[in-house]
Automatic annotation (TrEMBL):
Annotated InterPro entries: NA-bd_OB-fold (IPR012340), Ten1_fungal (IPR024222)
GO CC list: CST complex
Protein name, UniProt field: CST complex subunit Ten1
Any single GO BP term: telomere capping
Length: 120
């Protein structure tokens, strides 16, 4: 019995280490929404000792399902999508699902992802 490919839970900062085509799930804070290209620019300042990582998330195929508040600057959202490599500089993800992270305990999330990564 086959089903959809499972996504890899990663921190936004780890996206740059993912191979193109990798299906990922991550959390990010909306830094900017570019209407013309339907691109969300998400950031997550983790680890705090480094500059925040920015990911460009193409949400064009999700526009009918995204709620307005999920595009607001400062909103924390979950993303499932595929890592892309483009000629442009930066991290790019083609989103297949986007949803509100709700009232997230960011430290608990970061710790849980780190422990999962350590476990392999």
């Amino acid at each position: 019995m086959s089903g959809p490919i499972a996504s890899n839970l990663v921190l936004l900062a780890d996206l740059e280490d993912c191979k193109p085509g990798t299906k990922v799930r991550f959390l990010g804070c909306v830094h900017e929404y570019i209407v013309k290209t339907a691109t969300l620019r998400l950031k997550h300042n983790h680890p705090a000792s480094t500059p925040p990582t920015i990911a460009n998330v193409d949400v064009e195929h999700n526009l009918e399902r995204i709620k307005r508040h999920e595009l607001d600057v400062g909103a924390w959202i979950n993303v499932i999508g595929y890592v892309e490599r483009r000629k442009d500089k930066g991290i790019f993800v083609q989103a297949v699902a986007v949803w509100d992270a709700g009232n997230i305990d960011l430290i608990a999330y970061e710790n849980a992802v780190a422990k999962r990564k350590e476990a392999g």
